[in-house]
Amino acid sequence: MDCIFCQIVAGKVPSKIVYQDAEVIVFPDINPKAPIHLLIASKKHIPSLAHLSEAELPLIAHMVNIANRLAKEKSISERGYRLVANCGEEGGQLVPHLHIHLLGGKKLKDAPN
Ligand code: AMP
Ligand code: ZN
């Protein structure tokens, strides 16, 4: 098990867990690009969006719902925020374990890259 996010899920790598339930775990990005930069990750090891089965699509809705809820809790819901899911090498994905970035707390640059 050399996946860093699986190790966070298993509690083998410490992280300040912001939220978790049976499907999802949320923790701060170790290299934040904005005042609020959280990662909403699946607990199950799914390598990327490209590996999601149709049956797993509700997981993405759940992850977006959690991101929206956290944005409200962090008081950035009205100001605006960005959800990003990098997919694969050319998509800039560094950690091959499904996750969505929640970025906010400042005016983000136009391009997500
Ligand atoms: P990406 O796969 O490109 O969507 O981005 C992976 C993100 O995971 C990067 O923004 C990293 O800073 C972040 N990251 C890598 N290792 C850790 C870790 N141990 N804890 C928190 N965030 C991490
Ligand atoms: Zn994993």
Description of the molecule:
This protein is an alpha+beta fold and 113 residues long. Helix content is 20%, strand content 21%. The radius of gyration is 14 Å and the shape is globular. A hairpin with a 7-residue loop joins strand 2 and strand 3. A five-stranded antiparallel beta sheet has the order 1-2-3-5-4, covered by helices on one side. The relative contact order is 0.22. The mean pLDDT is 96. The longest helix has 17 residues. It binds adenosine monophosphate (AMP) and zinc ion. The site of adenosine monophosphate has 13 residues, from loops.
Structural class: alpha+beta
Strand content: 15-25%
Radius of gyration, Cα only, in angstroms? 14 Å
Distance between the termini: 29 Å
Give the distinct bound molecules: adenosine monophosphate, zinc ion
Helix run count: 2
Number of strands: 5
Q: Topology as H/E string?
A: HEEEHEE
Question: Shape from CA axes?
Answer: globular
Give a nutshell description of this structure.
The chain has 113 residues and is of the alpha+beta class.
Q: What tags apply to this protein structure?
A:
single chain, 113 residues, alpha+beta, 5-stranded antiparallel sheet, 2 helices, 5 strands, 20% helix, binds adenosine monophosphate, binds zinc ion
